[in-house]
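Saturday, quiet lab. Running sequence design on the structure tokens for the scaffold JK sent over.
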């Protein structure tokens, strides 16, 4: 580098400060390593990251939750429960238990899920008044979850293998993806769009369309909080766009990697809840 400056001085280039500055910049830039181009994610990679962020935070988790159900006339109902979740592996099979505590007409009701990636999920509902464990058929997964605007499938998560995805737009903050069900007879919608945050890959909005391409249902994230380095949805809402009735889901006391034992995710726990893990 020293001999280059000596030659520049001999040529009296240093007398022209602008030219000198330009030449020095070119010399230094030619010695810098070439930067790798930013890798563009494929739509399948975006969906995988979003699914991981939404349903697989930590190896397991627990949370207290409350649903506020508001009908088209403004009348409110409430559901309160605790969720326990354990992953067999990231983006793989999963186990879940939901224990209801309020109001009295759903107290001690338990929802249990065995989530499978390569086959259909198994879902059960324990009805304490009848001491009955009722299996929820695959056809009922898109029906109301204990009277709310959330569906059974919303709680445990829809299998990405059931939809075809297309990236329709993106900006500095979000990806917008269109999804079409592969089996159109199995669902009540014809398609949906999901907006996914680039900062944490959480879906911040999903809008479902009917066969006439009218928006009929919308999910909106209202609050996100960082818990132990994990961006976590603390409040969300699902709205029936036909009458603007909605259910708001609120979480608190969210914990990750609590060490839940696998044996509690069983039918026995539906009748005899594992109280040590419900505090």
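Result came back. Writing it out in full:
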């Amino acid at each position: 580098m020293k001999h280059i400056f000596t030659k520049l001085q001999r040529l009296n280039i240093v007398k022209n400060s602008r030219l000198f500055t330009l030449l020095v910049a070119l010399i230094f830039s030619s010695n810098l390593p070439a930067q790798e181009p930013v890798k563009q994610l494929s739509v399948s990679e975006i969906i995988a990251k979003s699914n991981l962020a939404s349903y697989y935070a930590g190896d397991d988790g627990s949370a207290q939750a409350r649903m506020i159900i508001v009908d088209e006339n403004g009348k409110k109902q409430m559901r309160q429960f605790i969720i326990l979740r354990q992953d067999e592996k990231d983006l793989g099979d999963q186990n879940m238990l939901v224990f209801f505590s309020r109001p009295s007409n759903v107290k001690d009701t338990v929802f249990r899920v065995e989530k499978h990636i390569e086959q259909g999920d198994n879902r059960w509902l324990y009805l304490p008044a009848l001491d009955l464990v009722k299996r929820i058929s695959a056809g009922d997964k898109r029906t109301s979850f204990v009277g709310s605007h959330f569906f059974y499938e919303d709680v445990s998560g829809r299998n990405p293998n059931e939809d075809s995805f297309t990236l329709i737009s993106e900006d500095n903050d979000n990806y917008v993806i269109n999804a079409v069900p592969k089996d159109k007879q199995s669902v009540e919608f014809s398609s949906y769009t999901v907006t996914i945050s680039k900062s944490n890959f959480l879906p911040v909005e999903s809008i479902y369309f009917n066969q006439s391409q009218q928006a009929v249902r919308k999910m909106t994230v209202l609050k996100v909080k960082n818990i132990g380095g994990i961006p976590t949805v603390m409040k969300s809402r699902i709205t029936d766009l036909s009458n603007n009735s909605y259910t708001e889901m609120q979480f608190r006391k969210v914990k990750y990697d609590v060490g839940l034992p696998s044996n509690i995710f069983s039918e026995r726990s539906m009748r005899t809840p594992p109280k040590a893990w419900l505090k």
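Notes for JK: The two ends are 69 Å apart (CA to CA). The longest strand covers residues 215-227. Ask whether to fix the surface positions before the next round.
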